[in-house]
Write a structure and sequence with these properties.
By secondary structure, this protein is α+β, with helices and mostly antiparallel strands.
Amino acid sequence: MLLPAVSARGISLVAGRREGVLEIWFRGNFWEGVLDILYIYGLSGLWTHALRKRRETRNVAGVDLFNLVLDIVYHWVLTWMSLQIPGIGVLSSEAPQHMHFKYTLNDLRKNPGVNIALLVVLVLSAFLMASGAMVMERTLGSVNALFDQAKPPHFLQMHKGAYDKAALDAFATAHPEIDSWLIEDMVGYDSAAIAWARPGTTESGTLAESLIDNLFVTQNTAFDFLLDTDSAIAYPADGEAFVPVAYQQRFGLQAGDELRIRTDLGIEDFVIAGFVRDSQMASSLSSATRFLVSDADFERLGTSGGSPEIIVEYRLTDAAQASDFQAAYESDQSLPKNGQAVTGDMIRIINAISDGLVAIALMFVSLLLIAIALLNVRFVIRGTLQDEVHQICAMKAIGLPNSTISGLYLSKYSAMTLIACVIGGGLAIVASQALTSGMQASYATAPVTALTFFVPIAALATVFLVVIAICRRVLRIINRIEVVSALVHGSTLNERQTARRGKRLARRVRRSAFASYGGGDLGRRISLVDLRSEAGQWMLLPLVFLLAVVLITLPTNLLTTFQSPNFVTYMGAPESDLRLDLQFSDDLEQVREEADTAFATDSRLAQVHRFANELVETPGDEGWESMRVEVGDYSGNTIQYLRGGPPSAGEISLSVLNADRFGVDVDDAFTVRRDGSEVALTVNGVYQDITSGGQTAKMAGDAPGVVTGYIYYATAAAGQDPTVIATDYGDRFPAATVVPMREYVSQTLSYVTSALFNAALLAIVFAIGVAALITTLNLTLRLAREKRRSGILSALGFSGSELAAQLRFKGILTVVIGTLLGVVVAATLGEALVGAAISLAGLGISNLAFIPNPLLVYVAYPLLLIAVGTISAVVVSSRLRRGDTSAWLRA
């Protein structure tokens, strides 16, 4: 610590030497002014030289490189000289900037290990906060850029079957809020019917692994454009096809590859001309994807087989009216509705959810690391004030105000936090580019705007301000230090606090008296007494490991939940091994009868549930609105209900979003219109569902109204392979979509699980690194502050190995306690915390229950953290074996 000296002018810093001659000669800010003039001279010289070169060469790049380097060296030498000349910083008591700088520099040099460890934690905190903010901004910017270029609809209605074009024309005429609208014709082909080959090589394959619908379309003329990888509107020539970017990434397709489609009339060959970004169907949560072909090729595919369907799309003058427009559309019974209805906001959420989860996870990890950093800052500051209490009292005694003394210490942590924010921000730029590269390939390159700079700067500023605010709060201790008491007792406590502490320690000593010691490990008994008497100073390690457990457990629990086959219960489906979908067609009922017979006689299946998709009507603001309901037998184990239970006769169960939409709950009355007749029902259950926009319903019994399709859920008998069964039924029923449920869930949530895997891996790496770092930091500081205690114990006969064992025991015990508490917190409060965050996304999940891997998160992870803490404790405590006991006694 550098002590201030009193001069006639005021307070000036004496760094272990007398005042310099220049300080006596030139009072005030003389040399600061001189340096300013020299800096301005050097910069003006560089500017003048650059202008002269520009006049001569008309190119500013012609500036002599040697001259540029010379100017940089010139200013560096000026800066170095400014720090070396004695007396250059003449300081008044009101502006001790030079004193702050010198103290900060010397203190950073004095405790490099502690400061580096603290700096690393601050850098990681700033890095993750800035990375999360940048990923969020880049994700939204990429999605918005794609939306600006592709112009997706504000409302769309998918439909299979016949429809009345005149009714659509009349509806458009009656609604002036429609800016433009179109009907997009599509032809669907099964993934198994699409193959690819690379000319000149033996590489080839099929798209059979994909379980989503493949829709071939032509380019739209008004809006909802499919864009190539340069974000230009794609126009394929005859014989060419543009393939979705998702397939390019999944199957490794390249431009120039051949695409072959098996139709009813033979093989249709195409050349892959490029890849398209689809503002509607880019996410894995979408049930379909679109291929782009020419008009002539589309006509040929349509007459060669395939499954025709349409999308009715609308662009509104005000996008905020999409919900009201949807209600008006669904209230018109003459319009096509045999398919999913989607709003623009829903499309935006689905597109952004995967990378948005990464951003949220990064910021969540950052908040936990900031909490760890703040705990360490508090621990280090309090320890430093305790160690330097005599110097603080000396400064108080000579008249330095509390604010000046606090400023000395605050300047160090301000500088460290600022450096951490700069380094963390720089690393975040690189990391965010890597994290968003895949997303920008699927959507669009996000433009650089003011938000691109403001968002990460605001995130870093938040980290800086939070850390400095906590530092200021801790440094208030200086205001309460009593000079005489602190000089006598060597403590930051006042007389009353010292007396209370003495009484408390006396009670603890009486409870821990060694008079009752009956043998055993004396060193361990001493360690327990020490932990009890100084519990407050040992709280850091348990808290850090508690947060570390939460840090690695929650992202992993969320990942395993989304990966679990049981997650189908959040998709409005029962747990099963197989799913078969029969979409609307002219022979739907005939195919349904054949499927019923096949399932009933198949010994490979243990249980089969069949549900009909029926369109019913519900009362709304614009009149009767259409709603899709799954009708069937819900007895037994089907889906899990958030409230209530499965419907029986005269009852209906609603998804969370539908219950919120209609403002009803369990036991409330609910009216629907089926087959032209109003039916009074009672809401018997509310469940969670992320499919179909989260707006679904379930009823028991048969479907007398308009049936648009059927869904079968089957459970395989013991020893049967669901994949083989799915392949068999896919061959027997070409018009049906048959998928193993595990694969269905995996592909539907592939973007989300991939993003969560990266976030979980990052959390594990950071948690382990921070745990090792903080354990080493904490025990190193404890070792330094307990030198005198260790010297006394050594003089009493304890060996270096025994002293090392005591420190090691205390470190490992606190690590174990913190880890076990972290497991409890993660298993209880963690689920509620993550569930609340997921419910805010509006996906249809309001109460997420984790489906964890118990051995991984509650056994392997805690053991890993305990092992890291143990290794760190062993490494630090080994220093006691070779210490100088005489030096310890003099400490």
